[in-house]
Amino acid sequence: MATAKLRLNGNEVEFTPGDTILQVAWRNGVKVPTLCYLKDCTPTGACRMCLVEVTGARTLVASCAMPAAQGMEVFTDTEKVHRARRLAIELLLSSGEHNCLLCEANGECKLQEYAYEYGVSAGRFEGTAKHYPIEDSNPLIIRDFSKCILCGRCVQACNEVQVNRAIGFGYRGAEAKIITTGDRPYDQSDCVFCGQCVQVCPTGALTEKKAKGLGRPWETKKIRTTCPYCGVGCQMWLHVKGNRIIKVTAVEEAQPNRGRLCVKGRFGYDFIHSPERLTTPLIKENGEFREASWDEALDLVANRFMEIKEKHGPDSIAGVSCARSTNEDSYQMQKLFRAVIGTNNIDHCART
Ligand code: SF4
Ligand code: SF4
Ligand code: SF4
Questions:
Q1: How far apart are CA 308 and CA 14, in angstroms?
Q2: Ligand 1 centroid to residue 262 C-alpha, Å
């Protein structure tokens, strides 16, 4: 419940003690840009994009890290604020190689979006950052350090959201970069390839290898669905171009996963388009498979089960349901065994 008030761009607004200025602004429909803020994580104030003017403060303050206070007077859109944001963008652009035309994040990159919005171009400052080679030794994630703005969102996503603790900041000054333990490639580190770091990266520094070159954001449509792999039922977006899934991302703010996915849900979609996928039941006769209809295949399985049951009793049959199936499928499986076959010999591999 709101119990305090401050003035935001001349308007009185309420807030709850503990809110940051950024949260108060967004809740009241005031747009404040940020590249490093990650919801529900410790604010870092790293990118300096959310700077605002607070009457009486000696300098501009990072609104993501500054708690709102009773009677405070805040301005989010002054010339001084815009000048500081333009400078921050210029410095970030100068610190790397942001060749947007070739970048996989073109059209989704927040740095690109803000550079356009604030009318900033690169070139005024000479870059000093060390140039690290692109890392693409694993099958899922490409790391391009020349596009990394060291916002730290990936580190927070890995450590505070997924709690995998696989990455952190390494080295100092112009050599700073995001590293795994021992600065090893992802595939030789503690990384479990959940891809959360890719989802939160605001630039093209972390991208999905399998999606490379397959489609720009404006060419794809997003279809919401439920992950089919396990009973958690994570909510996900399928990014589809021409009836082909090119990548999967988590739905933010939706239960139960609230923006998270595991490696299976995020990266395990290749099988859908595999030419080796079985599209019809196969029945083995005389050592050879032949195609069959679903009715024929299901009748065959049902008849065999009934033969065993009549000959040896229902307890001669047992079933183990798969933890990768949905709750509904597992429920149906136990129903089949208890009600149709007539045995309690039914278990679930998650119990092992
Ligand atoms: S893929 Fe997951 S575990 Fe690996 S670094 Fe990214 S967030 Fe951490
Ligand atoms: S890799 Fe991306 S999310 Fe991580 S610090 Fe660099 S720009 Fe930020
Ligand atoms: S497999 Fe992973 S992404 Fe899919 S529902 Fe389960 S936990 Fe969520």
A1: 71
A2: 10
